What does this fold into?
Amino acid sequence: MAKIKVRGLTKSFQAIKGETVDAISGLSFDVGENEFVSIVGPSGCGKSTLLYIVAGFIAPTRGDVRIGGTPIAGPGPDRGIVFQEYALFPWKTVQDNVKYGLEEKRLPREEQERIVRKYIRLMGLDGFQHKYPKELSGGMKQRVALARTLAYDPDVLLMDEPFGALDAQTRELQQDQLLSVWRERKKTVLLVTHSVDEAVYLSERVLVMTARPGRIKSVVDIALDRSRSREEIVTSAEFAALRNRVWLEVREEVLKHYDGVREGPR
Amino acid sequence: MTVFVKAPGSALRLLSRGAPILVLLAGWELATRSGLISTQVLPTFSSVFVAAVDLIASGTLGRHLAVSLYRALGGLALSMLIGIALGLGMATSRRVENFFDPLVALIYPLPKTALVPLTMVWLGVTDRAAILVILLACLLPIVINTYHGVRAVERTLIWSARSLGTPTRGLFVRIVIPAAMPAILNGISIAIPLAFIVVISVELVASKVGVGNLINGYGGVGAYDYMFATIGTFVLVAFIADRLAVHVRSRILFWHEQKDAP
It folds into this structure.
């Protein structure tokens, strides 16, 4: 059974002159239990909007989102979010950021401490427990954000350009860390990115969105042998073929959007 | 606003910071002693210094300073209480905002000391009248900064908290107030000098005691050395209060990332 089920999702915004503009329009897809799915598309196609609707932060104009068969009503403990800009609580230490959701769950104190220690270790944050976010690098902040979400233990991980603000080397390390966490913890992941390479490297399936109003343009199954190292995967012919296919699909939409802009209103 | 920065060689730094003041004081002493400026117009610095020592030793200054500080800090404390509540209310409730917005816009450009004649009629020449004017003067920077601070809280912070289980009603205390704290404290640090400025202004006009009244009294009888001594010591007290506030602020906001820092 599908873990995330999205049907006929439409989100309209009021534009300046009173007309309504559809950010996404009649969008449907499923994400299976423990599946890793990425969404790519040209900028402004509404991929973040889609993620925020699934997270329950904004309400759709029309359509239906179900998690494990239950319609969503706002944010819930079944879904965790990781943002590009990390969104750590700057007045809290690393440890207290990770602990935040556990306090809200009213877990016993020893239990909280145990879970915090576990995820601090898992994310390689040992020795940084008592640091404040401002003292950390971007990559570190990202790991704290992921640790905070994982500690809360949601079934579904929603990720909005999680590595977008990182340099290329850090980004690759974090991607591999995310993959190993995903394999160990058994999570359903829906990740939004503008990087085709990232989507193909990480996911089991890639959804390509059309230019605004966003719809699902195509679904690409990524059947890669994951037992290999990163070097072997990214240099393989299959990876290149899949990457090119997704890239061409996105490219087509980017150009369509660009032509629309160039022609402008008549 | 510049701040004394703790750094190696801070004695040297302090000296270089204090140099302009030392030059000014030396120039003052020289100009008045040499007769370049008549002591009828400006007393010598040394006579002012002697007067200051006398004012402090006799307890006169202490008595009046206590009254002025009571008024300034009382007005400031009330403005913090009301200003933060109002700013939070306006930022989170459309109804509260619609009600208070015109009032805030209206009193914003008004020189608050212009209200002194009115408060004298209402409350007489009392501490309460002075505190009311100081309260009004300090209120707006606190309201406006609190309002904008709350409005500027990143939506991703709110969303993160929501998805980590914080109910909507819990957001205010757990997220909004701490996230808006830098802005709230900015408002307060703007209000502090205002409290000191306005208390003197009020006391110059409408008070039987207080530092402002003391300045007025010495000026009236031509005791300029005592007048300058009073002003000088008050400036020093206000300066120390400001440094203290900066210190407390950086203690509270040790986690805060100064975005505009070089």
Observations:
- Residues 171-205 of chain B form the longest helix (35 residues).
- Chain B has ten helices and no strands.
- The interface with chain A takes residues 154-157, 159-166, 170, 175, 178-179, 181, 254-257 of chain B (CB under 8 Å).
- The domain at 43-252 of chain B is CATH 1.10.3720.10 (MetI-like fold).
